[in-house]
Amino acid sequence: MNLMEGLCAEIDRVKEIADEYESFPNGAFAAAFMRQDIKEAEEARNNGDTVKMIFYYQKLGEYQL
């Protein structure tokens, strides 16, 4: 798996976690942070910014359900 594939997998994984958090009482606040990180990770991917892609790959990897 290369960086692009790994980042895309993390984006998809965290989208699912954010959806789950939104179903919890008071979970929307945490989900908002996740969605902001997803947005920035997608921008890094779309711009081909390797340094930011690595950063967001690691940051998204820290989110757990």
Descriptors:
65 residues, mainly alpha, elongated
Architecture overview:
With 65 residues, this protein is an all-alpha fold. The protein has one domain (3-61). The chain is built from 3 helices and no strands. The chain has helices at residues 3-22, 28-47, 50-61. It starts with a helix and ends with a helix. The relative contact order is 0.21. The model has no long low-confidence stretch (mean pLDDT 97).
Number of strands: 0
- Going by helix content, strand content and strand pairing, the class is mainly alpha
> Secondary-structure element sequence?
HHH
The number of helical runs is 3
Helix content: over 70%
Distance between the termini: 23 Å
Number of domains: 1
SSE blueprint:
Blueprint (H helix, E strand, L loop, with lengths): L2 H20 L5 H20 L2 H12 L4
Helix pairs in contact: 1-2, 1-3, 2-3
Task: Describe the structure concisely.
The protein is built from 3 helices and no strands. It has 65 residues and is an all-alpha fold. It has one domain (3-61).
